[in-house]
Amino acid sequence: MDAMSSLKLQETVTGDYAETLASEILANRSKPLEIDASEVRRIDTPCLEVLIAARKQWADEDCQLAYGSMSDQFNSALEILGLQKTMIETGDN
Hints:
Elements: E1 5-8, E2 12-13, H1 18-26, E3 33-37, E4 42-43, H2 45-60, E5 65-70, H3 72-80
Parallel strand pairs: 1-3, 2-4, 3-5
Helix pairs in contact: 1-2
């Protein structure tokens, strides 16, 4: 099994950053990935959509995508959109 890669999200994860976020995530494609959202203070829908798409990609490739720490603001953003942590991660978490 491949070693888990990690990606730390920045404090502000908004629309202007969505394309960069997608590139950073895809740089870890086909590898187990843990995303650290502990410092996120603001995240918007386009970036959450990138994370949802990543979950589908990782699930299709039967790879683990997990979240380590998540800030209260990150969790709140998920809840506002009716999402749960299980909707953005896959594998044995």
